[in-house]
From TrEMBL:
Signal peptide positions (record): 1-21
This protein's name: Pectin acetylesterase
Pfam families on file: PAE
Keyword Ribosomal protein: no
Source organism phylogeny: Eukaryota, Viridiplantae, Streptophyta, Embryophyta, Tracheophyta
GO terms of molecular function: pectin acetylesterase activity
Species annotation: Malus baccata (Siberian crab apple)
């Protein structure tokens, strides 16, 4: 009971700020609570938060690899050492999307740099899967670890511009030029490589997975991990397809179509090919899907967007599953079933992994408290350990966990 309570608390802390439905995801790093603050860990470790400096991408401007406002794209790199010296983990930052010139322009003055490197914090906290501490991040702590900053608003996948609005949509170039730059900094000699990302970055890790594999020789072990990137093509409670409508704006405004996997665009419309459910079975590189069946962002913005809940009947349910009515729980179960169906075929090949749990959370790999928390359904391993088992082929990880890890159904 107590064990599950603290996850509820962490979630509330981390995702407290929710700005106008779609546009801004709170920069998570600002609010990452340490385990000592949450007081609930069964395995408290001493975490001194690692802060890693921002690096502007070399030749970003020459390659047109720029943020929405035309400033150079950027990443944070912390070098590996020892047994991790030739291993590389690339984490793609998240932060929702922008779907029209108004919402994209808005991002160029965002505090967190989601549309401009001029607004990016000069240091970023590396926690969870990016942590340098073996207690917290036993498998990847000494790898070369990179956070690629998200400043295009289309999951690193657009290539277009709106001159009259002074907007550049260069996600695909940002992705490619960062990979070039990192190759020149030693990634070309990688023995191990893992592409991951959370939220919009988790979607991007799926979109770019096979491309990433293609950057390396076959002797390099390459896998991908999507954290909270499994956005469903869901019908909201008022019968609309709110997220699909939104994606359609993102895809057309930013010229995403050309960069979507051909195996999908050859037989489906581009907006459909921005949904992981239409991509994952055809991705050939080993992929891990980590997602909550009650993903709090999707509940708030896709299943029950504010437009579909004008009277705020879902307000307390969004916050705590325990306060959902029976009919609300039924709707949430329907969403969960849709997710489980969508990963069924994907989960069959040995190489793929998944952990679909039932916490009211969004991203889990960068939150120390979730990443380093033991889950009974994983055989009392942490998410970090289970990912290591899958990455290094020690065992398969295909787990659906029904344990409700907030106060809700305890
Ligand atoms: C954590 O626990 C200690 C000892 O039980 C207590 O003194 C402290 O106030 C708690 N901290 C928080 C943030 O709850
Ligand atoms: C964490 O470790 C540092 C350095 O070893 C030490 O100074 C600090 O007191 C420790 N903090 C806690 C909460 O144990
Ligand atoms: C991790 O980074 C922190 C913050 O820079 C530092 O204090 C600590 O010594 C580092 N830990 C290891 C194991 O390198
Ligand atoms: C612009 O951003 C602000 C603050 O982040 C938000 O409140 C506002 O709704 C956004 N406007 C649009 C059109 O996205
Ligand atoms: C962008 O999304 C907002 C909802 O957040 C919607 O009101 C607007 O019409 C959308 N724009 C386009 C071009 O689809
Ligand atoms: C994608 O996967 C499905 C299901 O395995 C298969 O029927 C289809 O032929 C694949 N499409 C391509 C283009 O590989
Ligand atoms: C979802 O909405 C609830 C209630 O407003 C809020 O507490 C929570 O932070 C939101 N979560 C996300 C990921 O937006
Ligand atoms: C996991 O931990 C619980 C509680 O400590 C224990 O009852 C259970 O047997 C453990 N399961 C495994 C697979 O070790």
């Amino acid at each position: 009971m107590v064990k599950f309570l603290w996850i509820g608390i962490v979630t509330a802390l981390v995702f407290r700020t929710w700005v106008d439905g779609f546009v801004e995801e709170k920069n998570l790093d600002e609010t990452v609570p340490s385990l000592s603050e949450t007081n609930g860990s069964s395995q408290a470790f001493n975490d001194t938060l690692l802060m890693v400096e921002l690096t502007l991408v070399k030749e970003a401007a020459a390659k047109g690899a720029v943020c929405l406002d035309g400033t150079a794209s950027a990443y944070h790199l912390h070098r590996g050492y020892g047994s991790g010296a030739n291993s590389w983990l690339i984490h793609l930052q998240g932060g929702a999307w922008c779907n029209d010139t108004k919402s994209c322009s808005n991002r160029t003055t965002s505090l967190f740099g989601l549309g401009s490197s001029a607004y990016m914090e000069p240091y970023m906290a590396f926690s969870g899967i990016l942590s340098n501490q073996s207690e917290e991040n036993p498998e990847f702590f000494n790898w070369n670890r990179v956070e690629l900053r998200y400043c295009d608003g289309a999951s690193f996948s657009g290539d277009s511009e709106r001159q009259e609005a002074k907007l550049q949509f260069r996600g695909q170039r940002i992705w490619l030029s960062a990979m070039d730059d990192l190759m020149s900094k030693g990634m070309r000699d990688a023995k191990n490589a893992l592409l991951c990302g959370c939220s919009a970055g988790g979607l991007s890790a799926i979109l770019h997975c096979d491309e990433f594999r293609g950057l390396f020789p076959t002797t390099t072990k390459v896998k991908c991990l999507s954290d909270a990137g499994f956005f469903l093509d869901a019908v909201d409670i008022s019968g609309e397809r709110t997220l699909r409508d939104y994606y359609s704006g993102v895809v057309s405004l930013q010229g995403v179509q050309e960069n979507l996997p051909r195996f999908c665009t050859s037989h489906l419309d581009p907006t459909s090919c921005f949904f992981p459910e239409n991509l994952i079975v055809n991705i050939t590189t080993p992929l891990f899907i980590l997602n909550s069946a009650y993903d709090s962002w999707q509940i708030n913005n896709s299943l029950v967007p504010p437009s579909a809940d004008p009277c705020g009947e879902w307000e307390s349910c969004r916050y705590n599953l325990a306060s959902c009515s029976a009919s609300q729980m039924q709707i949430l179960q329907g969403f969960r079933n849709q997710m489980l169906n969508a990963v069924k075929q994907f989960s069959m090949p040995n190489q793929n992994g998944m952990f679909i749990n039932s916490c009211l959370v969004h991203c889990q790999t960068k939150e120390s408290a979730l990443f380093a928390h033991e889950f009974p359904a994983l055989g009392n391993k942490t998410i970090g350990e289970a990912l290591g088992d899958w990455y290094f082929d020690r065992s398969e990880v295909k787990v659906v966990d029904e344990t409700c890890c907030d106060l809700a159904l305890e």
